[in-house]
Design goal:
Elements: E1 13-16, H1 19-22, E2 31-36, H2 58-75, E3 76-85, E4 90-91, E5 94-95, H3 98-109, E6 111-120, E7 137-145, H4 177-180, H5 183-188, E8 202-203, H6 205-209, E9 223-227, H7 239-243, E10 248-254, H8 260-272, H9 278-285, H10 291-294, H11 307-317, H12 324-328, E11 330-336, E12 349-351, H13 368-377, E13 383-386, H14 393-400, E14 404-409, H15 413-423
Parallel strand pairs: 1-14, 2-3, 2-13, 6-12, 9-10, 13-14
Antiparallel strand pairs: 3-7, 4-5, 6-7, 8-11, 10-11
Helix pairs in contact: 2-3, 13-14
Length: about 425
């Protein structure tokens, strides 16, 4: 019986009624993404005794909203997401912090807040306000289910690749020296850097030594323990890269990529033929529990000695120079935060101009807002819900994106407005086509 409310095509299902009662009729966990903007507190009269928003205090408003969010928690799938756009209100020149107070209570209900997104209204209007700054943004809270009994992080769908945005500069380019260095530092650069267009990817020690400090490896030991892997660009792999100034520096690495297993087998043979045990080697080199890794064959536990340790080990175990070149030759490789080839994370400030819509008596969503939310979190065969649907922008966007959706709205008048908008759509898909 309950399953009858689940739409079987991308034409949005319209339900007229009070969200608090209608959500109860939906099956548990049937929704993948909720995108909504409820009436803000004391903002607009919608002319219905069951409307939310006209309560006399923020406290009463929050308690009504919590009834809705409790239902939403129930109907949302464990992998689901909830995007809540909600505005604030001044009372006698005092901002009431209504959204924050609601979110605070929602955490008790079992929600985890993943982002407080700033919706910056690029077309904000001039105002007559003279004693404070004009409000130019609203928050959009991105929430997921947080099972408090679970020691793991919340699990939910997040399809970042679908919402990545282009990098500001050419995606494959390595930054130019002038992007990261001051004028004085640029003056000091060695000749090899003269074209100044891009930082060289690999350099030899003589050049490294002439570099400004800013581009040099930070940390206790110079050697990062890495050697060139299979990919040409290994920038951005190490946490150290992110800690360095502007995320760029040169790190000393092995020039060659040794066959670990071969080297370790060789080292084991040399150790077994010597008078030293593994712990003797640690003692001789002034380490504890380090040498053991150089003799382990398992991938999880093995590691190769640094070029310096290799030389000391060679003296101690008196082995020949078969692997010397491969184990000790180093150069310096540019490290930094690598740009993702598919673009960058769009971030938590969404610059979107407000939408106008003649048929509705309230602010409707700009389509870009639910679009981003749905694309990032709703699987292709998923279901979107807006419990305060208004003119149904969420449903319209869901339909455009080929997602099924359910629109709950208190006011009967909006049924026709929604139907008019939805009927215009031609890209309707049925369940079997999803
Ligand atoms: C700000 S509007 C939503 C606009 C919508 N985001 C759009 O783009 O068209 C809020 C809507 O919530 C409705 N509403 C108020 N109280 C409600 C309730 N208890 N249950 C369901 N809808 C309610 C109002 O009638 C109004 O249409």
């Amino acid at each position: 019986m309950k399953d009858k409310v689940i739409p079987n095509s991308t034409y949005p299902k319209i339900i007229i009624g009070d969200a608090r009662e209608e959500l109860e009729k939906l099956p548990e966990g049937c929704i993948d993404t909720v995108v909504t903007s409820p009436p803000y507190w004391q903002q607009r009269e919608y002319g219905d005794s069951n409307q939310i928003g006209q309560e006399s205090s923020p406290k009463d408003y929050i308690s009504n909203m919590l009834e809705v969010t409790k239902q939403l928690h129930h109907v949302l799938d464990d992998d689901g997401s909830f995007f809540l756009n909600i505005g604030d209100k001044y009372v006698e020149k005092d901002l009431q912090m209504v959204p924050s107070r609601l979110i605070y209570e929602m955490k008790e209900q079992g929600w985890a807040l993943r982002n407080k997104i700033v919706w910056y209204k690029t077309n904000h209007m001039p105002t007559s306000i003279k004693d404070r700054f004009t409000n130019t943004w609203e928050p959009i809270f991105f929430l997921v289910k947080d099972d408090k009994n679970h020691y793991l992080a919340p699990r939910y769908n997040f399809f970042l690749d679908r919402v990545r945005i282009p990098h500001q500069t050419d995606k494959n380019s390595i930054p130019s020296p002038k992007d990261v260095l001051s004028d004085e530092e640029l003056e000091e650069l060695p000749n090899e850097f003269t074209d100044r267009e891009t930082l060289p990817y690999k350099i030899e020690k003589e050049i490294y030594d002439q570099l400004p400090e800013r581009l040099k490896t930070k940390g206790k030991t110079e050697y990062s323990g890495k050697f060139e892997g299979t990919s040409e660009i290994n920038r951005g792999q190490s946490p150290g890269a992110r800690m360095s100034v502007k995320g760029l520096y040169y790190s000393r690495q092995r020039k060659h990529d040794p066959n670990e297993e071969k080297v370790i087998k060789y080292l084991r043979k040399c150790r077994d033929n010597s008078k030293y045990s593994t712990s003797d080697i640690d003692d001789e080199l002034g380490y504890s529990h380090t040498a053991g890794h150089w003799f382990r064959l398992d991938e999880g536990g093995r590691s190769l000695p640094s070029p310096e340790d290799w030389k000391r080990l060679k003296e101690l175990l008196e082995f020949d120079d078969t692997f010397d070149k491969i184990m000790t030759e180093t150069h310096y490789v540019l490290q930094g935060v690598r740009k993702h080839p598919k673009g960058k994370n769009p971030g938590d400030m969404w610059e979107i101009s407000t939408a106008s819509f003649n048929d509705a008596h309230f602010a409707v969503f700009p389509k870009e807002l639910p679009r981003k939310a749905i694309k990032a979190t709703c699987p292709k065969d998923g279901i979107v819900l807006d419990p305060f649907a208004g003119a149904g922008t969420t449903g319209k966007v869901a339909q455009e994106l080929g997602r099924r959706s359910i629109m709950v709205e208190l006011n009967e008048e909006y049924r026709e407005i929604m139907k008019k908008r939805f009927r215009e759509e031609e890209n309707q898909k049925t369940l079997s086509e999803l």
